[in-house]
Amino acid sequence: MLDRSHLMLDSQQKPIRIIGSLQDITERKSHLIAIQNHNKRLKEIAWMQSHVVRAPLAKIMGLLDLMINYREDLGNIDEILENILISANELDGIIREIAVKTENEL
């Protein structure tokens, strides 16, 4: 409930009347809480995209750089490819988690 009042004074600044009203703001408050929860979820998703996604992506980029720039010196291509696959699967899992969080919010 929102309670508002206004005090009316006479010429000597003495109270002569008070006018008040009560308003049911349940719907407005529920809407505000929903927006706050939505914003919190969006912040979590944004953080995941900027931090959690970055780690496996950086691994993939580094391993691919090794393969492109040092391919003649690499004797462990199978290990590098396996690590790329592991990082790609990790990235896929993170993206799926983000998708689930997004769907749950909508």
Write the SSE topology.
Elements: E1 2-9, E2 15-23, H1 26-52, H2 54-69, H3 77-105
Antiparallel strand pairs: 1-2
Helix pairs in contact: 1-3, 2-3
Class by alpha and beta content: alpha+beta
Number of helices: 3
Spans of at least 5 consecutive residues with low confidence: none
- Radius of gyration (CA) equals 29 Å
Task: Let me know the largest β-sheet.
Answer: 2 strands, antiparallel
> Can you give the mean pLDDT?
88
Oligomer: single chain
Give the strand content: 15-25%
Structure, explained:
- The protein is an alpha+beta fold and 106 residues long.
- It is built from three helices and two strands, in the order ββααα.
- It has helices spanning 26-52, 54-69, 77-105; strands spanning 2-9, 15-23.
- A two-stranded antiparallel sheet has the order 1-2.
- Helix 1 (26-52) packs antiparallel against helix 3 (77-105) and helix 2 packs antiparallel against helix 3.
- The longest helix is centred in the last third of the chain and has 29 residues, at 77-105.
- The protein starts with a strand and ends with a helix.
Provide a concise account of the structure shown.
The protein is α+β, with helices and mostly antiparallel strands and 106 residues long. The protein has helices at 26-52, 54-69, 77-105, and strands at 2-9, 15-23.
Question: What tags apply to this protein structure?
Answer:
alpha+beta, two-stranded antiparallel ribbon
